[in-house]
Structure formats: C-alpha cells, structure tokens
C-alpha cells in the first residue's frame, strides 16, 4: 500500500489546537501519514501563551536530517519557525533533501498577541524560505509584515498576494479571517495570473484557535495526496469551515477547532 507522506516543521501546542498537534490531527483525518520536526515548545492554553522554549539548533538540524535520510515527504508545511537561524536551517535542508510542495504558513503572532516569530526573522522568511514555496498562506497582519503594505480592503489583499508571488512563492493565499467587516469571509488565492476567491459565512464563535495551522495542514495533506493547488485549497477550506462550525467548546478562552467535523460530515454523521 502506498501512502501520502506529509511533514510539518512547526512548534508544539500542548493544548492541541494549533501547531504540530493540529497539523498531525489534520493529516490523519485527511488520510496522509504525518511526520514532524519540532522547532519550539510553546506552553499555552485557550487563554494565551505562557512560555516559548525554542529547541536547540542542533536538535532541529538532527530532526531534519533524520527525516531526510529515511523519508521522502510528498508535501511539507512550515508553521512556527521562531528565528532567522531556524528559517535559514530549514531552507538549507529543504534544498539538500530536494523536497517538493512546500506550504509556508508564516506564523508570527498567537491569537492573544504572544510573538511566535522574532521580528528580525521576517526578512529571512522572505529572502531565504519564501522563494521555495509552492504556496504561502498569510493572514492579513502577516501579509502586511511580509509585504510592508497596509491592507484594509480586498484590492489591497490582491496586491499583497501579487507581491508575495513576486517574492518567489508560486501561489499566495491571503486569508480573510482578520477582516471583521462583513458576514462573509473571503480568502484570496493568486496563481501568478489570476485570482480565485474562497467565500464562506463567518461563524460567530470564540473557538478559532489554530485555524491557520489547521487550514495550511489540510492544504499540505491534499497536496501530499497529489491534488493540484486549487483543489487542495478548496478541500482545505471546507475542512476548516466544518472545524469552526461544529465547535467543541473546550477551554475558557479561544478554544480549538473540531478536527473530526469534516470527515464526520463526509460520512453523513452529525
Ligand atoms: N469565524 C470564522 N468563521 C469562518 N471562517 C473563519 C473564521 N475565522 C477564521 N476563518 C477562516 O479560517 C482560516 C484562517 O483564518 P485567519 O484568521 O485568516 O488566519 P489565522 O488563523 O492564521 O490568523 C481562513 O480561511 C479564514 O477564512
Ligand atoms: C505552536 C504554535 N504554532 C502556531 C500558533 C498559531 O496558530 P494559528 O493557526 O495562527 O492560530 P492562533 O494562535 O492565531 O489562534 C500557535 N498558537 N502555537
């Protein structure tokens, strides 16, 4: 039996809603064999981030080598990379092992405001890693920091997507979750020539912790299985919409999304 193999290079969220844990749950639900390289341990729960503990450089390098020497992931995502040093290491190993289908979720700040990427690392993300990306998936504040432009409307989101493609990412997906303006949320996908708009109803809920991680992990799982980018993003958007709609109600703050929801719906279960 051959199986799609998906790798996540990201931080750990002990609460299970974001980071490595959200990625693995999503890979599993979508039928991809999941592997991990852990960059940092974030002590967190639904009320915020209580501490961030980066893994020593050699520990990350060794995890990348142990993966690269024995496995050939068919798609890889990056999440919390924390520092310029780690970003450059990932870029170097990416080329060394000739991996393909890189999804960059440029994680910068957690929902409660805790920094998950050092400020000076944004430049390294743009110059060293982004040119290797098949698709980069910033939310609006991340797109602003990557491009240096302010984004307050849809045409600015399109312009940001254009600039991210000019930086070397083959596709850019500028997500609309942070645009609180309307009852609909529009994610803008740009393929270098045309725009695709993924429009969904905004769910009124506080349980949106880890939405970006889960969305990018779902894209990665679908790419690992061989889907083209637009099809992968479309399935992933349905996955995250179901995960937000069928809330679990866990925790006193921003609770995790429901990683079971999409497949339960596919099976016709409640
Ligand atoms: N309340 C919501 N209802 C429906 N979809 C949402 C909601 N919040 C976020 N999303 C979707 O989840 C995905 C990630 O959201 P976003 O908030 O933009 O990024 P991040 O989680 O990285 O901050 C996007 O597709 C966005 O459209
Ligand atoms: C370890 C770790 N990685 C990433 C995040 C941020 O995840 P994201 O999907 O952007 O969701 P929010 O935290 O913004 O809800 C994280 N918190 N921890």
Please provide a written account of the structure.
The protein is α/β, with parallel strands linked by helices and 270 residues long. It has one domain: Ribokinase (UDP-N-acetylmuramoyl-L-alanine:D-glutamate ligase), CATH 3.40.1190.20. 39% of the residues lie in helices and 21% in strands. The chain has 9 helices and 9 strands. The protein has a 9-stranded mixed β-sheet with strand order 3-2-1-4-5-6-7-8-9, sandwiched between helices. The radius of gyration is 17 Å and the shape is globular. The model has no long low-confidence stretch (mean pLDDT 96). Bound molecules: adenosine-5'-diphosphate and the ligand Cc1ncc(COP(=O)(O)OP(=O)(O)O)c(N)n1.
Briefly characterize the structure.
By secondary structure, the chain is α/β, with parallel strands linked by helices.
How is this fold's topology laid out?
Blueprint: E1 5-13, H1 19-29, E2 33-45, E3 48-54, H2 57-70, E4 75-78, H3 84-96, E5 102-104, H4 121-129, E6 135-136, H5 140-147, H6 154-166, E7 171-174, E8 184-190, E9 195-201, H7 211-224, H8 229-245, H9 261-266
Parallel strand pairs: 1-2, 1-4, 4-5, 5-6, 6-7
Antiparallel strand pairs: 2-3, 7-8, 8-9
Helix pairs in contact: 1-7, 2-3, 3-4, 5-6, 7-8
Bound molecules: adenosine-5'-diphosphate and the ligand Cc1ncc(COP(=O)(O)OP(=O)(O)O)c(N)n1.
């Amino acid at each position: 039996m051959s199986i799609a193999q998906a790798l996540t290079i990201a931080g750990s969220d002990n609460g299970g809603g974001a980071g490595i844990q959200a990625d693995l749950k999503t890979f599993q639900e979508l039928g991809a064999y999941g592997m991990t390289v852990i960059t940092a341990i974030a002590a967190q729960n639904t009320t915020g981030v209580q501490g961030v503990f980066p893994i020593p450089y050699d520990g990350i390098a060794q995890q990348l080598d142990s993966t690269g020497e024995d496995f050939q992931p068919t798609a890889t995502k990056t999440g919390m990379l924390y520092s310029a040093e780690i970003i450059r290491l990932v870029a170097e190993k990416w080329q060394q092992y000739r991996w393909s289908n890189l999804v960059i979720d440029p994680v910068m700040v957690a929902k409660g405001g805790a920094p998950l990427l050092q400020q000076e690392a944004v430049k390294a993300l743009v110059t060293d890693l982004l040119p290797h990306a098949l698709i980069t998936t910033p939310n609006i504040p991340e797109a602003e920091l990557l491009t240096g432009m302010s984004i307050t409307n849809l045409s600015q989101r399109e312009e940001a997507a254009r600039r991210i493609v000019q930086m070397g990412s083959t596709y850019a997906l500028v997500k609309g979750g942070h645009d609180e303006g309307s009852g609909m949320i529009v994610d803008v996908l740009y393929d270098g020539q045309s725009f695709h708009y993924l429009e969904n109803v905004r769910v009124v809920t506080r349980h949106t912790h880890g939405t970006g991680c889960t969305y990018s992990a779902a894209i990665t799982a679908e790419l690992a299985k061989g889907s083209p980018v637009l099809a992968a993003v479309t399935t992933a958007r349905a996955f995250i919409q179901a995960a937000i709609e069928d809330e679990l109600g866990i925790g006193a703050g921003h609770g995790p999304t429901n990683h079971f929801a999409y497949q339960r719906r596919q099976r016709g279960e409640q």
